[in-house]
Amino acid sequence: MTTPSLARVFLSYKRNAEPDERLAQQVLRSLSDKGYSVFIDRKLKIGQDWAGEIEAELRESDFLIVFLSEASSRSEMVKGEIEIARKHATTAGKPRILPVRVTFTGALPYPLNAYLDRLQYALWQEEADTARLLEILHDALGGGDISSPDVSLAQAPADGDLPPSYAAPLPPPGGALDVDDPLYLERPPDRSALLLLPQRGQTVVIKGPRQMGKSSLLMRSVAAATRAGKRAVLLDFQLLDRETRESSNLFFRRFLASIVEQLELPDRVDELWDSGLANPQNCTRYFERQILSKIPEPLTLAIDEADALFGTDFLGDFFGMIRSWHNLRANPVKPAWKKLDLILVASTEPYMLIDRPHESPFNVGVMLALSDFAPEQVQELNRRHGSPLNGEQLQQLATLLGGHPYLTRKALYSATKERRPGDLFAQAIDDTGPFGDHLRYYLLRLQGKQELVTALFQIVQGRSCNDESLCYRLEGAGLVKRQAGKVIPRCQLYADYFRERLHPNA
Questions:
Q1: 117: helix, coil or strand?
Q2: Cα–Cα distance, 132 to 126 (Å, whole number)
Q3: CA distance 437 to 422
Q4: Which of 180, 208, 365, 369 has the fewest Cβ atoms nearer than 10 Å?
Q5: Rounded CA gap, 459 and 485, in Å?
Q6: What is the C-alpha separation between 253 and 270, in angstroms, rounded?
C-alpha cells in the first residue's frame, strides 16, 4: 500500500554535474517511495513559465534539500533557489533548508556562507555514504530528533532558524573573491583604492551595476586597510530580512549589533538605547562611545549593497547619519572619528537613493566608478587563460558580451575547460549553454516583477522605456545601460535571450 504524502520537498542541485545529479536522483527515488511529494527541475521549460513554476514550488515546499559540491556552491541558480527559500521562510516559516555537502568540505563562497554556515549539514563523500544519508534525510523530514554522532541535518542550535545577521563574513583565502586571484584584472579604480585605504579617514564610494566587480574591489580595499593595521567590518545590506527592513528602530539596533559582533565587543545596544533620542542620534552616540573609543586601531566600515535600503522609510535617516559621520572627522573635539574609514558600494545612481545633496554620503570622498572591460583588457584576460580564443573569436566575444566582466571571465573559463570555442557562441543563449545558469538566475530575479519585465522587453525590442525609476532599477541590476542618451540592453547576449524568453503581458 502506498504511503500517504508526508511533506513537500524541493531538491536543488547543479545540472550536468557529477556526482551531484546522480545523488539527487537517488534521493528523489527514495523520498518518492516513502510518500513524500518531491520536486526536481529535470526538464527545462522556456521563459517565465519555468521561473514561475520554480518560485511556486519553493513557496509551497516544506523543505529545501540543497546539494553543495564545489561546482554547485558557485552556481547562480542554486544561490537563487536558496534566496527564494529564505525569503519565503521569513514570512511563512518554510521551507526549512537542509544542506548536503557533496565531496566538498571547503568554505562556501559568499553569500552562501552567510546563508548556510549557521546550519548543520550532512556530508556525502562516496557511494557507501548514500544509505546513511537517506536515513538522515528521512529523520529530518519526519521532524525527529537527530542525535547521531555523525554530522547530521539537525537544525543549528539557538538562532539557527533565524535569518543570518547582515554582518557579512570576510571571504577566506581561496574563496570566490580571493584578493590574490591571479586571473583578477586590476583596473584604475583598483589602483586608486589601494592607494587610499592605507591612509586614515577615507570615504570611498564604489559604484557600478551588478557583476561589474564591485564586491571584488571592495574585498581588495578591505584587505588593503587590514594590511595597514586597521580593523575592518563588512556589512552586506542584501542580507537584510523583511522584519529589519520594515522597522527603523530594529534596523539601527541590528546595524550596531552586527558591528560589535564582528569586532568582538560587548553588545550593550539595548541597555544603552535612549528612547528619548532619535535612532540616528542613538546610533551615533553608541558608535562613538562603545565602538570607536573601545578599539585602539583605526576602523574601516565597509557596506556592500548599500542601495538595498531603497524603498525603506529610514533610508534618508541612515544615509544622512553616515554623511554626518564623514563630517565629524573635521570636528576637533571629536578625535575618535578621525580614525574611521567609510566604504559604500551601490549599484543604483546615488541621487536615486537620497535626493538631498547636503545629507548624502555619496557625493563626498572619492567616487570609484567601474565600467565594462575595454578590448585590450579582454585580450589580456584571454592571454592569462592560455589564449583559448583567437583574434576573430575575441571580436565575436566583444560583440556578444560588450566587455561584461563576469560573463567575459565565464566565457574564457568555459572555452578553456568545458567546450570548444565554436560551441561557446553557438550555444550562447541555450538554457544548457555556457551562460544558461546565469541567464536563468535573472529570470528567477524577475519573477513577480511584471513592471520590470515589461520595461526590459520594451528595451530589448528597441523601444524606449519612459519610466526612469524602472530604467535605473534595470541598470542597477546590470541588465541595461545608457548609450548616447538611450537605454539599451547591457549586451547582445541579454538582448537575444530576453527577447525570446520574456512575456510582457503575462
A1: coil
A2: 11
A3: 19
A4: 180
A5: 13
A6: 8
- Any alpha helices (H) in 150-286, and if so which ranges? 188-196, 214-227, 242-245, 248-263, 269-272, 279-286
As a whole number of angstroms, the distance between CA 463 and CA 457 comes to 9
Instruction: Report phi then psi at 345, rounded to 5.
Output: -120, 130
CA 69 to chain centre: 18
Phi, psi of 194 (to 5 degrees): -70, -20
The residue to which cell 544603552 is assigned:
272
As a whole number of angstroms, the distance between CA 26 and CA 288 comes to: 56
Closest-CA residue to 243 (of 323, 338, 166): 166
At 66, list the grid cell.
540543497
Ramachandran assignment for 43, one of left (phi > 0), alpha (psi -120 to 50 degrees), beta (any other): beta
**Contact at 8 Å (CB) between 287 and 318?**
no
Chain-centroid distance of CA 492 in Å reads 24
- What helix, strand, coil percent values describe the chain, rounded to 5? 50, 10, 40
Q: In what order do the strands lie in the sheet with 340-346?
A: 231-236, 299-304, 340-346, 203-207, 366-369
Q: From first to last of the 506 residues of the chain, give the pLDDT tens digit.
A: 334 457 999 999 998 889 999 999 999 999 999 999 999 987 655 566 788 889 999 999 999 999 999 889 989 899 999 999 988 888 888 999 999 999 998 888 878 888 888 888 999 999 999 999 999 998 888 865 333 444 444 444 334 333 344 544 444 333 334 555 677 888 899 899 889 988 989 999 999 888 888 888 888 898 889 999 999 999 999 888 888 989 999 999 999 999 999 999 999 999 999 999 999 999 999 999 999 999 999 999 999 989 888 889 999 999 999 999 999 999 999 999 999 999 999 886 655 555 566 667 777 889 999 989 999 999 999 999 899 999 999 999 999 999 999 999 999 988 988 788 888 899 999 988 899 999 999 998 898 889 999 999 999 999 988 888 889 889 888 999 988 889 999 999 999 999 998 877 65
Amino acid type, 339: K
Backbone angles phi, psi at 110, to 5 degrees: -75, 140
C-alpha cell recorded at residue 306: 548599500
Cα–Cα distance, 351 to 357 (Å, whole number): 8
Q: Which of 94, 81, 61, 72 is nearest to 23 (CA)?
A: 72
C-alpha cell at 22: 546522480
Give helix then strand counts, H and E, for the chain.
Answer: 21, 12
> Is 26 within 8 Å of 98 (Cβ atoms)?
no
H or E element, residue 9: strand 8-12
Sort strands 480-483 and 486-489 into parallel, antiparallel or unpaired. antiparallel
Please name the residue that has the C-alpha cell 573635539: 333
Three-state SS annotation for 50-80: HHHHHHHHHHHCCEEEEEECCCHHHCHHHHH
